[in-house]
Amino acid sequence: MYAVVKTGGKQYQVSEGDRLRVETIKAEAGSDVTLDEVLMVNDGETVNVGAPLIANASVSAKVLSHGRGTKVTIIKFKRRKHHRKQAGHRQNYTELQITGINAG
């Protein structure tokens, strides 16, 4: 059984026991969260697709940790113009473990 959920402006295919990193969720580490925006649920026999969301469906997850991703370096360079600009960015994330899928 798996589901497609939307959180942080992105879509993720999840099944029970999966660990994934999503955009930051305001919850304490160790707490449980519920992802209500479920777009699709597949239970092995039938596929339930929402239009756009499935009513009464949810995915429960446990917050494992919060952190920051690896640094992405941005370099802008124009030859012969004495122009060079360098910047870096580290994206915040929340690591989740999926504990259950409620098909609704």
TrEMBL record:
<dbReference type="InterPro" id="IPR036164">
    <property type="entry name" value="bL21-like_sf"/>
</dbReference>
<feature type="compositionally biased region" description="Polar residues">
    <location>
        <begin position="89"/>
        <end position="104"/>
    </location>
</feature>
<keyword id="KW-0699">rRNA-binding</keyword>
<dbReference type="GO" id="GO:0019843">
    <property type="term" value="F:rRNA binding"/>
</dbReference>
<comment type="function">
    <text>This protein binds to 23S rRNA in the presence of protein L20.</text>
</comment>
<feature type="region of interest" description="Disordered">
    <location>
        <begin position="83"/>
        <end position="104"/>
    </location>
</feature>
<dbReference type="GO" id="GO:0005737">
    <property type="term" value="C:cytoplasm"/>
</dbReference>
<dbReference type="Pfam" id="PF00829">
    <property type="entry name" value="Ribosomal_L21p"/>
</dbReference>
<dbReference type="InterPro" id="IPR001787">
    <property type="entry name" value="Ribosomal_bL21"/>
</dbReference>
<keyword id="KW-0689">Ribosomal protein</keyword>
<keyword id="KW-0694">RNA-binding</keyword>
<dbReference type="GO" id="GO:1990904">
    <property type="term" value="C:ribonucleoprotein complex"/>
</dbReference>
<dbReference type="GO" id="GO:0003735">
    <property type="term" value="F:structural constituent of ribosome"/>
</dbReference>
<comment type="subunit">
    <text>Part of the 50S ribosomal subunit. Contacts protein L20.</text>
</comment>
<dbReference type="GO" id="GO:0006412">
    <property type="term" value="P:translation"/>
</dbReference>
<dbReference type="InterPro" id="IPR018258">
    <property type="entry name" value="Ribosomal_bL21_CS"/>
</dbReference>
<dbReference type="GO" id="GO:0005840">
    <property type="term" value="C:ribosome"/>
</dbReference>
<keyword id="KW-0687">Ribonucleoprotein</keyword>
<protein>
    <recommendedName>
        <fullName>Large ribosomal subunit protein bL21</fullName>
    </recommendedName>
</protein>
<comment type="similarity">
    <text>Belongs to the bacterial ribosomal protein bL21 family.</text>
</comment>
<dbReference type="InterPro" id="IPR028909">
    <property type="entry name" value="bL21-like"/>
</dbReference>
